[in-house]
Amino acid sequence: MAQTKLNAKVGKRTIELSNLNKVLYPDDGIIKAELIEYYLKIAPTILPHIKGRPLSLVRFPDGIDKQRFFQKNRQEWAPDWLAHVLLGDHDKIDYVLATEDASLVWLANLACIEIHQTGARAPHYDKPDYVAFDIDPPENYPFTSVVDIANDLRAAIERVGYHTFVKTTGGKGVHIYAPIEPKWDFDAVRDAALQISQSFVAQHSKTTTLRMKKDQRENRVFIDIYRNQTYQTSVSPYSVRGRPRAPVSMPLTWEALQPITDPAVFNVRTALDHVTSEGDPWEAMAAYAVPLHTKAQTVVAASGSRAKKLKEEPPESLAEYARKRKFDKTPEPGPSIVPGSGDAFVVHRHHASRLHYDLRIEKDGVLRSWAVPRGMPPRPGIKRMAVQTEDHPLSYLNFHGTIPKGEYGAGDMWIFALGRYEITKEKKDGFYLRLNSPELNAEYRMIHTREKEWLVERLENPQIDWLQQPIEPMLSDTRDEPFDSDAYLYEVKWDGIRATVVLDEGKITVRSRSKQDITHAFPELQSPEKRFRATSALFDVEIVSLDERGAPVFENVLGRLQARSESAVARARAKHPAICYIFDCLYLDGRPIIHEPLWKRRAWMADSIIQNPTYRVSEAMDEGVSLYRAVQQMGLEGIIAKKRDSPYLPGKRSEHWIKIKSRTTQDAIILGYTPGRGEREDSFGALQLGVYRGESIEYIGKVGGGFSDKARRTLLADLRELKTVKRYVSEKPPDDAVTVWVEPKFVCEVQYASIIRGHLREPVFLRLRPDVMPKDVVSGSKSDATEET
Question: Is the pTM here over 0.90, yes or no?
Answer without folding.
Answer: no
